[in-house]
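Aim 2 progress update. The chain analyzed this quarter is reproduced below.
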Amino acid sequence: MRNLFIFFAVFMFMACTQKEVNDQTAMTPWGTVDDTTGSTPEQYTLQEILESGELIALTIPGEDTYYSFDKAELGAHYLLCTQLAHELGVGLRVVECKDTAELVGKLRKGEGDVAMLALSKELDCADSLVYCGPEQDSAQWAVMAYNKVLADTVNHWYKPEMMEEAKEREEYILNVGAVQCHVYEPVLDRKKGVISEWDHLFQTYASEATTDWRLLAALCYQESCFDPKAHSWAGACGLMQIMPETAATLGLPESKLFDPESNVSAAARLISQLITFYRDVPDDAERMNFVLASYNGGPGHVRDAMALTEKYGGDKYVWDEVAEYILLLSKPQYYRDAVVKCGYMRGTETHDYVYSVRERYEDYAGVALGEGTYAAGKAGNYGGVSTQPERRVAKENKYQI
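Predicted structure tokens:
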């Protein structure tokens, strides 16, 4: 019994000693670093961040920091931080703040690990922060002083050329890397009234979307040029460019993202949800403009533009008026306005997207439909199933939208 007690005491001592070592070290891709700062339940040191599997970045939305674009997130600081999280082997969660005061308050409360923006070193609370990472005009990322090990790790990882590389990557995505797809003619056979080989799907699911099937066709061409294998840098997939996260909410399994019928069906459900979301817009045609804008840029940003339109005396239910504020959401005066909830928006694409889809739809609505296809009368009719036209051949190997 006495020997057993001695064994148990030695075991507990070794366990406590090992825990102390673990508490004071953090394994990173660059080796083991001392982590002797300790923490409270509201303060997460690097070791605890690694154990949790998540790095929480606090930021103020903006062109250089963080914003939504084409169904995903961009911003040079965001791209850098995703790279850091990847190197650490953890996920990244971004928490948006309205201003510096809110950001620093959250950082102090332990609601975030790092300030993911160029934070001024002239702040009153600068002595409680440790600055790290990309530097610009006496401003850097920052962490709380108790988390100096994280700051040292960021400085060890960061190289001055990384910011320029992140900006170049962002520029590439914005200008040439949006969607990889084969390009098909926008109308397969105008004389026979065949827009695409997927007309039967648009006609089948138009009733679920409560819209004209030819509008679905116009939306599809804008998204993928009728290529069911199209994919974007952001992860959008298939004919209607459905994001995996969106697919999950629509009941579309990831394994069927590139299945044409499943993809179109999910898009129809999404459009139906957006139509309901904009039920306060009284005019049907205007409502569809808002739906198209949200399909591309997200309903949060569109609602922000509507709020700005109303604030400045415009009609928030008229797209042509709201569209101007979609563009203005790229300016700090507007995206930092108190009525704006989703922050910065690169609105040029969404602005042009709506008019491009509507213009193509007007062209499709004028197609004289032949026998064997569903002959909708005027815009707004939907339903029916066409015969499937012969498969066409891609005109070019790749097409960048």
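DSSP finds 15 helices and twelve strands in the chain. The longest strand covers residues 114-120. These observations will guide the mutagenesis experiments scheduled for the next reporting period.
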